[in-house]
Design goal:
Elements: E1 7-11, H1 15-21, H2 26-46, E2 51-58, H3 66-89, E3 92-97, H4 105-118, E4 124-132, H5 134-148, H6 154-160, E5 171-174, E6 193-196, H7 206-217, H8 227-239
Parallel strand pairs: 1-2, 1-5, 2-4, 3-4, 5-6
Bound molecules: 3-methylbut-3-enyl trihydrogen diphosphate (2 copies) and magnesium ion.
Magnesium ion binds next to loops.
Length: 240
């Protein structure tokens, strides 16, 4: 049994293709995607993952057909009311990450209620990136520093970013076969390991998660150092 990374981030891609293959409307794929997420949250909690961050709707997804955008908004609002009681019971602390200004008042109220209801939980932190973009995040953090007159340093900027409450992701998974970041955690993934799965998000199950975790456990994270330095470092830390 391999050791689970502390923070896993996922680009949940491939819902539309999953639906198209079955001659279903794209929104049916997104519905199936919610089921897949529910299963994934449970699996992460069972494996001792501390933080799960998922990409649910990007700043760029507003460019999709109006019908799909409104379907996604409705599904999000529905999931907020349906899923929160179980998440709360399972010890999940929810955070919604992204620009709230152009979300409906109903959705924003649901978000605030869900965050409040789960704030004292500590088993797993679930960050749902909704109306999120990595560039938006960097810009909003920089704007806060500018408004305060705070010097721009890496740690000051990190402190204002939308994921300041968690450490950077150790593993970033993207399903759906595409090998790109699509404006996800641009700042925070500086030293993350990447894992690309050919599975469409609705098909990504516990077994696939375990394959991704196993692949992560075979990586050597050097953070700029040499492999020899890491070996020496590991030897001294086991002695101490
Ligand atoms: C990801 O699935 C979910 C969202 C972007 C909301 P897609 O809808 O992008 O699925 P594909 O990539 O078209 O299959
Ligand atoms: C990334 O998927 C966004 C989410 C999963 C929410 P997209 O399907 O929007 O990414 P591109 O457009 O193929 O790069
Ligand atoms: Mg896609």
């Amino acid at each position: 049994m391999s050791h689970a990374p502390h923070h896993i981030a996922i680009v949940m891609d491939g819902n539309g293709r999953w639906a198209s293959k079955r001659f279903l409307p794209r929104v049916a794929g997104h519905k199936q995607g919610v089921d897949s997420l529910r299963r994934c949250v449970k699996a992460c909690a069972q494996r001792g993952v501390g933080v799960l961050t998922v990409f649910a709707f990007s700043s760029e997804n507003w460019s999709r057909p109006a019908e799909e955008v409104s379907g996604l908004m409705e599904l999000f609002a529905l999931a907020l009311t349906r899923e929160v009681p179980q998440l709360k019971a399972d010890g999940v602390q929810l955070h919604f990450v992204g620009e709230r200004a152009n979300l409906s008042t109903k959705v924003v109220a649901g978000i605030e209620k869900a965050e409040l209801a789960t704030a004292s939980n500590s088993r797993l932190i679930l960050n749902v990136c909704f109306n999120y973009g990595g560039r938006w995040d960097i810009v909003q953090a920089a704007a806060k520093l500018a408004a305060q007159g705070t010097p721009v340093t890496e740690s000051n900027l990190s402190g204002e970013m939308a994921l300041a409450h968690v450490p950077d992701p150790d593993l970033v998974i993207r399903t759906g076969g595409e090998q790109r970041i699509s404006n996800f955690l641009l700042w925070q993934s500086a030293y993350s390991e990447f894992y690309f799965s050919g599975k469409l998000w609705p098909e990504f199950d516990e077994a696939e998660l375990d394959v991704a975790i196993a692949a992560f456990n075979h990586r050597e994270r050097r953070f700029g150092k040499t492999s020899d330095q890491l070996v020496a470092q590991a030897a001294t830390s086991t002695v101490a």
